[in-house]
Input
Amino acid sequence: MKKILVAMLLIPTLAFAWEPTKPINVMIGSGPGSAIEMNFRLVASEVEKRDKNVNFIINLKPGADSTVMLNDLVKQKADGHTIGAVAHMSIFVTHEIWQKDVMNYTYESFKTPFMIAKSPLVIVARSNSDVNTPKQLVDTLKKPNNPVSIAIGGGAHKITYEYIMTKISGDTKNVQTIRYPGPLQAVTAVAAKEVEFGIMPLSTAIALIKSGKVKPIALTTESKHPSMPDVPTMAQQVPGLNAFAGVLLAFPKDTPDNIVEWYRKKFSDVINSDDMKSRYSENYLYYNKQELTQVGMDKFIKDLRNQWLPLARTIQD
Output
């Protein structure tokens, strides 16, 4: 009888454990090569190495800045075998402003328990542009000699542009954005000289920056990146600008907590490892340890919406 009681006491530890029983479908709402895909693969590949029973299958569903993907994800079975990877600014801010006519969800339709990675945004110019500094860029956006086009590939990039133009009273008649399916396509368009400027994650642009196909004008964060000390920020020209690309996991709202906690532990263990910290640095990524918790994410979401929603509501897409 005592043995039975001891066994029963051990049941709670085991009964609520969850493990995937088939490949995990990871839905991403961007085209190939996006920062979302790259950053997810970076961490997920290590999760797979550590647990041979885990197999992530990437399913790209681009359209309307990930709205198409989230419209699908919200209908999926909440069993942990279908999840989404999405940009923070899109799901928490810009969708309800610029995609409200096509979205069938709110950000509260999902569980968003932790952030995977962040990357500074960088403003780049084509290699033959006369613009080389943040001041020259601001002067051009305020009084362009010719029409100016800026490539963007996501909600965070668009709202960063709008913030800059609002703060400097830019010429919105002669300066326009061109939306591309994703940040890789946006930076490629700048490299091909289809447009003069672009805004995208540094992690996406770095290969073309290093090859000289595009040149970095400025980061949109408050401080310089330690790996690129010669690249200035927009801080002096546009006070208060601190914009970045962030990638997080999203689950259908009814996903059981034990499933969400399995993902949190698997990903947190990898992200906090010394090896992954080094790889983050190599790929121009960073993370906030508090945002690996639900409490930290709840604060992040609240602060983000308080900061950016008032601006987003004044902008016509």
